[in-house]
Amino acid sequence: MELTEDTARTFAKIALGHVGKEYPHKLDHVMGSDADVLPPRKLHPVFVGSFDWHSCVHGWWTLLTVKRLYPNTPEARDIAALADATFTEAKLSAELAYLERPESRGFERPYGWAWLLYLHEEAERHEDADWARRLEPLARAFAERLGDYLRILTYPITVGTHFNTAFALVLARQWAETHDPKLLATIDEWSLAAFAAKKDYAGWEPGGDEFLSPVLSAALLMSRVMPNSQFAPWLEALVINNGWLGNECWPVTVSDRSDGKIAHLDGLNLSRSWCLYSIAEALGPHPVREQVMQRGNLHLASGSEHIAGDYAGEHWLASFALLALIARKSPDD
Question: From CA 242, how far away is CA 260, in angstroms rounded?
């Protein structure tokens, strides 16, 4: 798979088909009273589709990214029209009000938080629209919560699912670089304390329903936090010298794509490819750079075959394929 106009249009068609699709829907919703028993469209007038809130957020990231990269396609016009109708001040105020409920302290923490920041950053690249300005209060609210969360998070969460700390910090850090120097410093300080001394990875990866690599997510984060001269020897001590990269980092198989949890493994192939391409870029002219790129290619080829076909994966996989394709095409896109 290559990032071509045809590929981007396919991703856009998939995402346009689900960001406004209310059902089926899985809520992350703590109710404080009977008054909170409401349908998704009442609770989340912006991010109502895509089976769950966070998938809708990164479905929108996919749409805005495709519109920016291929602005002259019919899908780009459809995306703009839908964004204008969706990212209204009234609807986004309702999303912010939901977040400010006492019962929402752990809502979508940290995965959805990070994707919202990443979406806001992408929206700012669309200078001909007002989406970023309208999204900013919600982004700022999540950024404040992330800083507070890191101050109480004693240990990193290293599972391969939505609670993974390193993945969220990769996305949030990119937003913080241009929006919040204090949060950026907090992320870097926390990341170094959590991961800088790690070496000789021997985790039981992959987990049976994981879509993130615990070790590669941490490595990607450290590639952003550490200078290149420090990152290469750190990576060597983590997964190269002990043979993990060569012996264990191979594409995974999926037994049943109609099972939403098992289908996570298609996402693992795609997210690993994104990590591997990005890590290779950070390594520069390192002896294992080509091996890292080749493993990225293998994972992308395995994951890209199954982006569409069953809603269990179709409501989210295109976002991770797009992350990988952008990382392979150019680190600046």
Answer: 33
Q: At what angle do helices 131-152 and 181-195 cross, to 10 degrees?
A: 40
pLDDT digit string, tens, across residues 229-259: 999 999 999 999 999 999 999 999 999 999 9
Helix ranges, 197-263 (H): 214-225, 228-235, 244-248
Task: Give the global pTM.
Answer: 0.97
Please report the DSSP string for 117-156 in residue order: HHHHHHHHT-TTSSHHHHHHHHHHHHHHHHHHHHHH--S-
Residue of 170, 92, 100 whose CA lies nearest to 135: 92
Euclidean distance between CA atoms 284 and 227, whole angstroms:
12
Tens of pLDDT, residues 292-331: 999 999 999 999 999 999 999 999 999 999 999 999 975 4
Q: Which residue's entry shows tokens 């994966």?
A: 313
How many angstroms separate the CA atoms of 5 and 69, rounded?
9
Residue 232 burial by CB count (10 A; 0-12/13-18/19+): exposed, middle or buried?
buried
